[in-house]
Design a protein that fits this description.
282 residues, alpha/beta, Rossmann fold, 2 domains, eight-stranded mixed beta sheet, two-stranded parallel ribbon, 9 helices, elongated
């Protein structure tokens, strides 16, 4: 047999209590998510840039100091080659500093090129703090400095990972002889869900809209990406290549991770880069 029915007053009181609990839970969740979103927006840069200030040794070539358009002092290395067929402007990824690229710039020079590499603002010995506009200004300062050494049609911009953003921006706004985009993402908002899955991409203030820019870059382009990239997924490399205007080339690596293509596949990597540089020697 059924138990005695609850009086109407008790039913209403119980229902009201349940509604209060549910309402409180929704409000608490909403407030918590809202606070987290605001904090992520405030500290967005901390999720993008991981600079290291220490450990930059002497340049393997010449020490260079540049002044960006906003007055920030930028440190760089310049490795001249006596018979350079081209000059590579290397723009590094979001972590470490120039010291971590010492072997890379030396090997690039051995390909018969002069090499310029900079530490973005906030990295190594460079002043300031990194942000999108700042990295664009730093790259432009390096490009303008190189014009005192060579001509625009001999400058090959090499952007690695995050550095692909400033590289694409530069190549889309000034004349260049070539562009190499290595392990780069399509845009910062596209990457956001892979870092914080629940964060609304439309709230990401940093853009680095590489996909839109490669469509209007007219110089020769080489896209490099590992199919096993554990940070920037391979499909983003494919998307950049698909969106890019001609002339364009690609080199997809079957192995290696995001940061070790030059270590895992040095012969293939530098041979492919050298092939891309061949027309500059003619």
């Amino acid at each position: 047999m059924d138990g005695p029915a609850l009086p109407t007053e008790k039913k209403n009181a119980l229902l009201a209590a349940v509604k209060r609990v549910v309402r409180t839970a929704f409000v608490t969740t909403g407030v918590t998510v809202g606070i987290l979103v605001v904090l992520l927006m405030i500290f967005e840069g901390k999720l993008i840039y991981f600079p290291s200030r220490d450990g930059v040794g002497p340049s393997p070539g010449e020490e260079v100091w540049l002044t960006a358009a906003d007055g920030v002092k930028i440190h760089g290395w310049y490795l001249p080659h006596p018979k350079a067929r081209a000059t590579i402007l290397h723009l590094h990824g979001n972590a470490g500093n120039l010291e971590d690229r010492r072997d890379l710039v030396r090997r690039m020079q051995e390909l018969g090129t002069s090499v310029m590499a900079i530490d973005f603002r906030g990295y190594g010995k460079s002043e300031g703090s990194p942000d999108e506009a700042g990295l664009y200004a730093d790259s432009r300062a390096a490009y303008d400095w190189l014009l005192t050494k060579t001509t625009a049609d001999r400058i090959v911009v090499h952007g690695e990972s995050l550095g692909g953003g400033p590289a694409c921006e530069l190549a889309s706004t000034v004349p260049c002889g070539g562009l190499v985009v290595q392990s780069a993402f399509t845009s910062a908002p596209d990457m956001a869900p892979r870092v914080v899955p629940w964060f609304p991409r439309f709230l990401v203030r940093t853009k680095y809209d590489n996909r839109a820019k490669v469509a209007r870059i007219t110089c020769r382009k080489l896209f490099i990406h590992s199919k096993r990239d554990e940070i920037v997924p391979f499909d983003m490399g494919e998307a950049l290549y698909a969106a890019a205007a001609e002339p364009k080339e690609c080199e997809w690596f079957s192995g290696g991770g995001h940061n070790d293509l030059t270590i895992s596949y040095p012969k293939k990597y530098y041979s492919r880069l050298e092939k891309f540089l061949e027309p500059f020697g003619k």
